[in-house]
Structures
1.
Amino acid sequence: MPKKRSGGGLSTTQQAAKFLGVSVLAGAVMAGIALPAAGALGLAAKGSVQGFDEIPANLKSPQLSQRTTILDSKGNQIAQVYSRDRTVVELKDISPYMQKAIVAIEDSRYYQHGAIDLKGVLRALNKNAVSGGVAQGASTLTQQLVKNYFIEEAGDDPTKVAQATQQTLGRKVKELKYAIQLEEKLGKKKILENYLNITFFGEQAYGIEAASQRYFSKHAKDLNLQQSALLAGIVQSPSRYDPVNDEAEATKRRNVVLERMAQLGDISQAEADKAKETSLGLHVTQPKNGCITAVKGAGFFCKYVENVFLTDPVFGKTSAERAKLWNQGGLTIRTTLDPQAQESVQSSIKDHVYKSDSVAAAATLVEPGTGKILGMGQSKPYGYNKNETEYNFSVDRDYGGSNYGFPTGSTFKPFVAAAAIEGGKSATQEYSSPYKMNYPSPVQQCNGKQWVNTDGEQVQNENESEVGPYQMKKAMAKSINTYFVQLISDIGLCPVVKMTDALNVHQGDGSKLPQTPSIALGAIGLSPLTMASAYAAFADRGMYCTPVAIESITQKVGNEQKSLAVPKSTCSRAMSEKTADTVNTLLRGVVDSGTGQQAGLDDRESAGKTGTTDSRKNAWFVGYTPNLAGAVWVGSAKQNIEMTNITIGGVYHSEVYGADTPGPIWKDAMTGALEGKPSESFNLVDIPDENDHDKGNGNGNGNSNGGDNTGGLIGGLIGGTTAGSTDGGTTPTPTFSLPDGFIQGNENGGNNGNGGNRG
């Protein structure tokens, strides 16, 4: 006799037995409704099953969670991701042996009874009473299917899963009612198909197709007798009968299934005996789930796609809706990733930066005019082991990137130049550009306030020999810091903010740029994707397109494919064509004769800009052709390594520059990505060299609020060298040498002076 608990009442075993007896009895009552031959139609109206009619009339079959497949732009698989590894197949694509085996061991009278098996109910009642415990259940395949529906609908919510599996009379009655409905609505074959697709077979495999692939590396339609028997036997207890971890126990269970099939006449005894003598014959395929399994180093891009899906409202109004759709899966996501470009990115990075190096590299390629991300990679592989990382250095924090992005150095200067040119400044604009100077102050901000250099902050050029005056073309080519600080002081911060907003240039944490003159020198952290997308606007003659990673998505719903809406690139004019053409001409000079010569492409026109930050913690090259833009960053993710006296990719550097490490990565990545693609040309403009101007033909434009009008020969001596904009304040006047005795610019009475053309 089972022991009672102290204090009276039934033991756990007795309670379970009593519950099952009540549940099974309720099943018999329900059977009276399902099977008129049972003659118990009137029982449901009696008090024994109160609330039955209140149960919703229709059970909605859940959309089964399945694998999601992520493809590149050519249709090649990048990776598969899933919350549950499942591939739904039709009954015709499931081995007949498998169909017979699952019926034999789980519900041998499946084709003889309705939703509830009355003989099975009575048999279970009798056996459980004799044993004093729960020795045998009486659920039919249809009832099991309903229970699996409840579990599937619960997803990964532990509370809902508990509710879906709780051992209560109410849940059992609901299960019975819906089982009756399914029998009437679907029929035996469809119920069997659905059951084989939904049930869990262990080893992360849901459904027969995933199980067949996991254990035998074959399709479900190709399973033989002994393989089918093994899989059918697993269902009762996937952990106990797991053939990977306990081959002996799994073999015993398989042989039980084979014997049962022989008893039922599904196979002969001779067939069963022969099958029992065979080994399990496992050919296990390890689960390959998630972006960590992505090919061609596309793990970070894969994760970016997932993060776009989980954050973009086009896939659902709330994060919960988007997560549910993602976990439900069954999606085929065709992305913008170009296999040629991706392979080139990864190959180039691998050649120049080792994963074991103390610093990392990241590169992103974007197509001008469409915003399509064609390549994305980095030197530290996607993973959780040594020299691996889960952070995508190419993107913003909200998409799996670093918290703030990385300071960009001088690669920010083209944005300042574009703002100035768009506002009317000439590309021949000249400033004194001394080797070292205080930040000009005050500088006008967008909110009407002024930035004031209260701490006497200074800025200097890379080399002491870099002393102006300089015009914009040479200042850009040589990356003269003091020139661009004077330029941003002259035009004010608001035009720069307006330009960067139009180019969607924002900090890595998503916030707007601070309104301080130091942004001209790239002191703020940005992501390579942000930089590549912004430079792509120069390539497309002023049209900025938001970056996109997804071309199309289809979802498998039943046997049908349903198309989903996807985010589209939004293109808008960020600057005039003339401004973009001028910037292209300036940046063409950087790779032709300036700091970026090591990055210039050999077989086509290119333009770009180098960047190196204070203490050499970051080095950049951002560049483009008319049909492809790319950004490369090299540095320490934690910003704690100064790249001096350092070996990167097996090459020693006394000092790292944007030209000598990111530059060659960019060159090789772009060369491979563009191989076989058209060689297009920029629409360049004429920007006279500083030494080519017509002397003595000055046009000072010295108009000032103070009434002073000084000609081009002398005017710049006062106004141009002080960067003009003082708004009533004072600006330190740096020393300079005069180029051929000529100076542009004006004094403007201390108020927003605008330098004239060179004389």
Note: The chain has a mean pLDDT of 83.
2.
Amino acid sequence: MADTKREIERKYQSDGSGLPDLTRVPGVATVLDKGVTHLDATYHDTADQRLAAASVTLRRRTGGSDAGWHLKFPVAPGARDEIRAPLSDTLPDELAALVRSRVRDRDLLPVVRLRSDRDVRHLADADGRLLAEVSVDTVHAERLTGDGGTARWTEIEVELADDGDPAFLDKVEKRLRKAGIHPASSASKLARALAETAPDTTATTAPEAPATAPEAAPRHKRRPRPAGKPVTAGDHVLAYVRAQRDALVELDPAVRQDVPDSVHRMRVATRRLRSTFRTFRPVLDREATDPVGDDLKWLATELGLDRDQEVLAERLRSSLAALPDTLVAGPVGHRLTTWAETRHAGAHGRLTGILDSRRYLTLLDTLDALLADPPLRKKAGAEPDKVLTKAVRKNLDKLTGLVTHALDLPPGTDRDVVLHEARKKTKRTRYAAEAAAPALGRPADDLVTAMKALQNLLGDHQDSVMARKTLRELAAVAHAAGESAFTYGVLHAREERRAELAEAALPEAWTTITEDLRPWTT
């Protein structure tokens, strides 16, 4: 069974002269000598170093108090989440799954072996509470692939204690700098080992993971584009596509671990991609992007099975908690909890299967291939302002038609359906404006803000529609079990009122939006 630990640490260069007096660090009362530990770690990666390119490390280590398999994901500079599994001869399946979005079908091979002699000190306060662990590591690195060589160095590592204040590391660093000790040039031991043991002595960093297109991917006429900062309309669209592809890959492990909000964020990235392909067809050839859009729609639907239920359960729990006790009849809370947990367990189990499916992994490969060799159309090479503005305005015009039509309809099912379509078009308009914002600036930013507000209003209305449907189903089950359905009726009535308020607020909200965004609507 794997467990996760947030690791906050800093690394420093060392000339082998040891540590200064660390009792002079503010807050440190004692420095405890914990002795020398011998560590032996073998790092695994693909032949093209896909994990190293993403600053992800996977190792099997013996020695020390935490021998086993360690998988580390970057969280922020100097902070990583370390997921640990017990020591075994082969990579545990649970860790293999967490790197699958990056590795795909490639083999994980031993690439570097690091043997370290770790001289450890514990910094403690006056109450004996551990503040940080400081170690001097003498490292011997050996490349295990190709014609790589070996390397040796000494470094100092300072790791914050669990639940410690990160500001304490600043105090330690100030003391180290006064002693002439400076931050390491490499972010990790593995990064330094890869650089210093590389067969080509000019290599300084791990190469980026290359994209591999599926054999059946169609070929299209390509147009060159400048590297670096986005310049053309195509550059801006591709930059947005790349950001969403990266989000899918990075969120995959969090979804597998059932991290809160991870399913929602992954679903949004999926929708942003699909929306971008549909909105910017003058930039990207739909012959290539339409099939990808179909797979993205499938993935968003699968993600939605878990996400929609999660949102609905939270809404119903909050509504129930707001009721006075006199309006709660029967085991409503227990039935709601049982319904939510059962649905979530089933949905999450299905979702992890989707993330292991051939269709999903092929989708990731296809996105890589599309970005590596994009199917650009003629307008992709044009200045971004006119091309992107036209695409965004087209979405906004369609949204205007839907909202106008909804306001002309009487309350009821027909209006609910049109408002739901307007909500989806609101999201597409927002995502288009997000993609265009780096080129168009303030007008696009204002549109994003307006669409967020409209999306919240229409979203509350749609959530009310779905909540009422679920409440009717739960009431029927409760009635069949001989329980009172009274409270479900009360909640249903309150949801009806919430929908009425959202519909009543829409005309004024829409008038405000159209007035504020007159440059987009004239």
Note: Confidence is low (pLDDT under 50) at residues 202-226.
